[in-house]
Amino acid sequence: MRTFHAGFERGYPPVRVCIGAGVRHEVGAEMDARKLRRALVLSTPEQVAQGEATMADLGARALGIFSRATMHTPVRITEAALAAAETADCLVAIGGGSTIGLAKAIALRTDLPQIVLPTTYAGSEATPVLGQSADGVKETLRSPKVQPEIILYDPELVATLPLSLTVTSGLNAMAHAVEALYARDRNPLSSQLALGGLRAFVTSLPRVVACPGDLTAREQTLFGAWLCGTVLAQVGMALHHKLCHTLGGRFNLPHAATHAILLPHTAAYNADAAAEMLVPAEELVGGPIGSRLYDFAASLGAPLALKSLGLSETDLDEAAKLAAENPYWNPKPIERGDIRGLLQKAWEGSHPH
Ligand code: NAD
To answer: Hey, whose CA ends up nearest to atom 16 of ligand 1?
Structure first.
């Protein structure tokens, strides 16, 4: 089997995962099972209603809500949340990567246990990784302290995700899987997880787009998010994630949409150098990985051009320079000129081949 390669080691954190419609209502029972009594609920300002519904589920176990979670986890927000969490004995985060990032940032400083209810497909809930920002600089760290202990995946929560974010967030998750297939430190299990994650999205994302309230399809996409997040935690990422971090950090582009636009281009860039590792994915999508991912994204109505996110063409030289300066390991050597060419196509939204 192509996904097998000998000689590997693997360790797993003890994480409890529940998937199913209505599982969010079990949040209080999960606390009781661990003798936890006082939860600080976390959300973004946009998802405060979902946070308040979680407080209702928690009843007297809810200490309060902190609803100022923000993308890129600014340290000043974490400091305000720490004050609110002073008498809490656990955190309950309901939201996407931004809200889960805030829970992780508090846990890093307090070791409070985290129960998370993901509402996007970004996958942060499954990783011991935290990105946080201060003074315009975003730093990423890895610590077992930030890995959430309990994940409750409820398809009814993700069913409220607007269609545009549903598509870009799904492609964001698929990007973790594509890069995991050719990761330098991949192992047979990570490759199977990555393929399983890709398969879940390839089959169920079109169904979700056709019928956003289809809870069976939504549940499958959450299963894919779990697999893709798990694999993101296990192996190193390459050119694609480097470019997304560069564009997101330097030019403040939206996280999921940037991933969605770049994925066909970064996959095409690595297609020859990682040909053997990508064979199972190409079988799954039915052809050359970059082309098929571009067609898949287009068929779902995803944004295809970086210019549509407000990036100026004159910024492409700087982006290519930054991406080539401290490159992550990548199957194909990263040459600044080649990256500039890749970025031009992604900026225009043209086909990767
Ligand atoms: P997000 O959490 O920033 O959410 C985007 C917007 O959508 C927010 O306004 C949010 O309130 C809203 N939203 C989310 N779910 C919703 C729902 N079901 N219904 C209605 N509105 C909803 O977006 P994201 O893409 O999930 O997270 C991006 C952040 O996560 C970035 O900062 C990224 O760096 C981080 N991230 C971290 C990791 C990690 O392992 N550390 C992994 C992936 C992403």
So the answer is: 161
Whether 149 and 257 map to the same domain: the answer is no
Residues 145 and 177 in one domain: no
pTM of the model: 0.96
Judgement on whether residues 136 and 13 belong to the same structural domain of the protein: yes
Bridge-based pairing state of the strands 16-19 and 39-42: unpaired
Q: Residues 5-36: pLDDT tens digits?
A: 666 666 677 899 999 999 999 999 999 999 99
The CA radius of gyration of the chain, in Å to the nearest whole number, is 20
Q: Are 162 and 213 in contact (CB under 8 A)?
A: no
pLDDT one-digit tens code per residue, 223-262: 999 999 999 999 999 999 999 988 988 898 999 999 999 9
Q: Does one domain contain both 126 and 202?
A: no
Range of the domain at 316: 163-348
Residues lining ligand 1, judged by CB closer than 6 Å?
44, 46-47, 71-72, 95-99, 101, 119-120, 122-124, 127, 129-131, 157-158, 160-161, 165, 169, 255-256
- 197 and 136 share one domain: no
